[in-house]
Design a protein that fits this description.
Layout lengths: L2 H13 L3 H13 L6 H8 L16 H12 L3 H11 L2 H13 L10 H13 L5 H15 L2 H11 L9 H12 L6 H10 L3 H18 L12 E4 L3 H8 L2 E6 L4 E7 L5 E4 L11 H10 L5 E9 L10 H4 L8 H7 L2 E11 L2 E2 L5 H11 L6 E3 L2 E5 L2 H13 L4 E5 L10 E9 L10 E10 L8 E10 L4 E8 L5 H12 L2 E2 L6 E2 L6 E3 L4 E5 L2 E5 L14 E5 L2 E5 L11 H25 L1
Parallel strand pairs: 1-11, 6-8, 14-16
Antiparallel strand pairs: 2-9, 2-10, 3-4, 3-5, 5-6, 6-7, 10-11, 12-13, 12-17, 12-18, 13-14, 15-17, 18-21, 19-20
Bound molecules: adenosine-5'-triphosphate.
Adenosine-5'-triphosphate binds next to β1 and β2.
Length: 594
């Protein structure tokens, strides 16, 4: 197939304003393409040379392209640079340059689609020393045999500026028209695309085998499935009304979505929410997840969070991103170790599970997942009709450092690529920050792990209630200490240690060690949230709930303060209410803006 036939259709597509017309042109293009190269045509039409999840970038800069154009046409680069602004588009420039040269030569070879495609693949894959020169030579090679119109599109494709406005969905429409008897199988085609988003391969299969070909498309290890997404509602009550009384309420971890493919021999590939291959920066995840599903082939849907290695607490999302940026992987693995929570199973040992109910998928997932310290099953609760229970679980989830809940319909199938109502998220809506530190009393401690073995990993902190003359817990604090402070801590607190909870402390939490409430520390958190466990503010803001400080950090000891000078319960309640007002204002503001 000659590239000029494709270029002519691109020219028509470029000129059209009607979507149906565009689909028609594409349909004709696809029908006139030999099936065995239809994948190549589809990738090129989308301005690419592979499925987008492969992340292969042509990425040829304009400067480099002008060098190639100059080499191919004999027109000096300065001259091209002069002409470029007048034409305003790299494609038009290439067309102009090649037409000037074409006037003087007659012996050019016809360019085939295969040759253009293979050359572009080589351009994309050229790396290392001499890669730039090689790219220039490769591009110049096809440009010297190109007709002006061909040069226009080659220029735009290599510089990633094709902009025909053809998207995956348009290609699916055209494929339906061309090979699947119009619209009858359009939905099925899209479902297949959602589980196998390599649109070139799909095109080839339906061109070669028609409707029967559709059935051959299945979940395949190494090809990412488009993830199912969640809707959002504002309250537990609304959610229960929407889904029905029986639900799965799952922690909504604030980390990175990971679709993890594991082969029988332990090989692993990890895909992000946007289907990028993120296997490389997560050697730890590869290891512990493959161990947890040893002997099986699986596709797991998971969320991976960074944790504080010393306390096991979940850290905010940003900390995980160090993996991709600031730190080297090795160092990030130590400073920000991860835990992966699996919440769905899409494929097991050759069997596609998408059409099974969540109830059943979960059962199978539980059976095959041999949990270890780092590869865990999502924390969830099955709730039947009790809105209050759902609210409480939400508060618990927030207190544990998550964003809230994803509530799911146990009877639902896995809808790849769809934001449906069988998954609904309930997020904490506070956006305000806690800007003022508080002074809290140490009433207990928990032994540390890892680097903190032998000292405390976290302290149990309480606010003071002058009316009742008691201390009520408001957070577990495990961050913000220097190594020296940590090392000194057992000794520093030794004098206050007792073997039971002090009678003036009101707590629902069992600590490893208890103290007489004396030592005061300054603490800064991210915000104050409702809590099903902490006793500060209990029943005073909401029935059966207290208040907790989220992500508390140690700012220093307040040796100038005694326990009665600590921040009071009433002050914490006030801060919580203030914060709510700020949120309401911000929410109205953003609603007005929307
Ligand atoms: N138990 C869970 N089930 C499903 N998704 C979860 C779960 N825990 C955490 N998540 C994360 O929450 C997201 C679900 O929300 P949604 O589908 O709306 O994604 P989003 O558009 O990225 O939104 P958000 O910004 O709220 O994460 C998932 O993409 C996933 O990364």
């Amino acid at each position: 197939m000659n590239f000029i036939d494709v270029a002519k259709i691109y020219e028509k597509i470029e000129a059209t304003t009607g979507r149906l017309e565009m689909i028609d042109y594409l349909k004709n293009l696809f029908l006139s393409t030999p099936p065995e190269i239809l994948d190549k045509i589809v990738y090129l039409t989308l301005g690419n040379i592979a499925a987008s999840f492969e992340g292969i970038e042509l990425g040829v800069g304009e400067k480099l392209f002008l060098r190639a154009l100059s080499l191919a046409t004999g027109i000096p680069q300065e001259r091209l640079e002069e002409e470029y602004p007048k034409l305003g588009d790299i494609g038009k420039l290439a067309e102009w340059a090649v037409s000037k040269k074409a006037a003087q030569s007659f012996f050019t070879e016809d360019l085939t689609v295969e040759r253009v495609f293979d050359t572009l693949s080589k351009v994309a894959r050229a790396t290392g020393e001499g890669a730039q020169d090689l790219k220039v030579r490769l591009i110049a090679g096809i440009l010297s045999d190109a007709k002006p119109l061909e040069a226009r599109y080659i220029a735009r494709i290599v510089t990633e500026k094709l902009r025909l406005g053809v998207r995956d969905m348009t290609v699916l429409d055209a494929l339906s028209e061309a090979f699947l008897k119009g619209r009858a199988y359009r939905d099925k085609l899209e479902r297949k695309y959602n589980i196998y988003p390599d649109i070139g391969k799909i095109a080839k299969v339906v061109a070669e085998k028609g409707i029967k070909g559709l059935d051959e498309i299945t979940i395949t290890l190494g090809i990412p499935v488009r993830p199912m997404l969640a809707q959002r509602l504002r309250s537990a009550e609304e959610i229960m009304e929407k889904i029905g009384p029986r639900i799965f309420a799952e922690f909504k971890y604030d980390g990175e979505r990971m679709q993890i493919h594991v082969w029988k021999d332990g090989k692993v590939k990890i895909f992000s929410r946007r289907l990028e291959d993120i296997t490389e920066p997560y050697p730890d995840v590869r290891e512990y997840v493959s161990k947890a599903v040893e002997g099986h082939e699986v596709v797991l849907d998971c969320e991976t969070v960074a944790i504080n290695p010393d306390t096991g607490e979940i850290l905010p999302f940003q900390e995980l991103m160090h993996r991709r940026r600031k730190y080297g992987v090795e160092e990030a693995m130590k400073t920000y170790p991860t835990v992966t929570y699996a919440f769905d199973l899409l494929y097991l040992d050759g069997r596609e599970l998408l059409d099974e109910q969540l109830d059943d998928r979960r059962k199978i997932l539980k059976e095959i997942l041999k949990e270890n310290e780092k590869a865990r099953l999502v924390q969830y609760e099955e709730i039947d009709g009790n809105v209050e229970e759902l609210e409480r679980f939400f508060e618990h989830a927030v207190e544990m450092g998550t964003e809230g809940l994803v509530v799911k319909d146990p009877k639902s199938i896995y809808q790849a690529g769809v934001r449906g109502w069988s998954w609904i998220k309930l997020k904490r809506s506070y956006i305000s920050k806690m800007i003022e530190p508080v002074d809290l009393v140490v009433v207990g401690a928990f032994w540390g792990k890892g680097k903190r073995a032998g000292t405390y990993g976290a302290l149990l902190m309480a606010a003071y209630s002058p009316e009742e003359d008691v201390f009520k817990t408001v957070c577990k604090m495990g961050s913000g200490f220097t190594d020296e402070e940590l090392a000194r801590m057992p000794k520093l607190l030794e004098d206050y240690k007792i073997d039971h909870k002090h009678p003036s402390v009101i707590s629902n939490i069992e600590a490893d060690v208890y103290f007489v409430p004396v030592k005061v520390a300054q603490v800064l958190g991210d915000e104050i949230t409702l809590s099903p466990t902490h006793t500060c503010g209990w029943n005073k803001v909401r029935k059966n709930a207290g208040l907790a400080i989220r992500f508390p950090r140690f700012m220093g000891w307040r040796d100038d303060k005694g326990p009665q000078d600590a921040t009071t319960e009433e002050e914490i309640i006030e801060m919580y209410k203030e914060q709510l007002k700020v949120v309401e204002v911000e929410e109205t503001k953003s609603e007005e803006e929307a």
